[in-house]
C-alpha cells in the first residue's frame, strides 16, 4: 500500500501589528508553518485573528501583517510570487526608525495625516508610534516641496522593493540614511 507523500511546507516569520482607530496597541512576532498549497498571507491572517489582541469587539480593529519566508531549503522563491494567485493587491513595507526624520518633519507628517487624501501632498497615515508613507514616485515639483529627508527615505524604500515605508519609533536605524537628533 502506497503511503501518501507529505505536503511540502515552508516556515514564515510574521509580525502582526494590531491597531484600533489608527492607534497601534500591540505588536507580536510569531513563526508559522504553512503547506505550500496555502497562501502564507491567509495563514498568517487566520493565526493573527485567533490571538487575544484580535478581539472583534474592539472598535476599528485593524491587523497589519509583515510575512517573511524563513531562509532555508524550504523557503519559497518570493512572497510576491506566492501572492500572485491571490485576488487582491499584495504589497510590502519597510520599517525604519523615526530618527531618520527631523522633529519638524514629524509635525508636518502629523498635519498631513489629518488631511483628506486628495489634500495631502504625499500619501501618509498616522500610526500609533509613527507614519505609514507611500513610496509612490512623486513629481519633481512635489519632491522639491517635501522636507529634504523624505525623498531619500522614499527612494530607499523603493530600492528595497517596498510600496510603503513605516517610520516607527521602534524601527531600526539604517546606516545609509541620515539620523537626526530629536
TrEMBL record:
Protein name per UniProt: DUF5983 domain-containing protein
UniProt organism field: Sphingomonas natans
Pfam family, one: DUF5983
UniProt superkingdom: Bacteria
Residue ranges of domain DUF5983 in the record: 93-182
Listed InterPro entries: DUF5983
Lineage: Bacteria, Pseudomonadati, Pseudomonadota, Alphaproteobacteria, Sphingomonadales
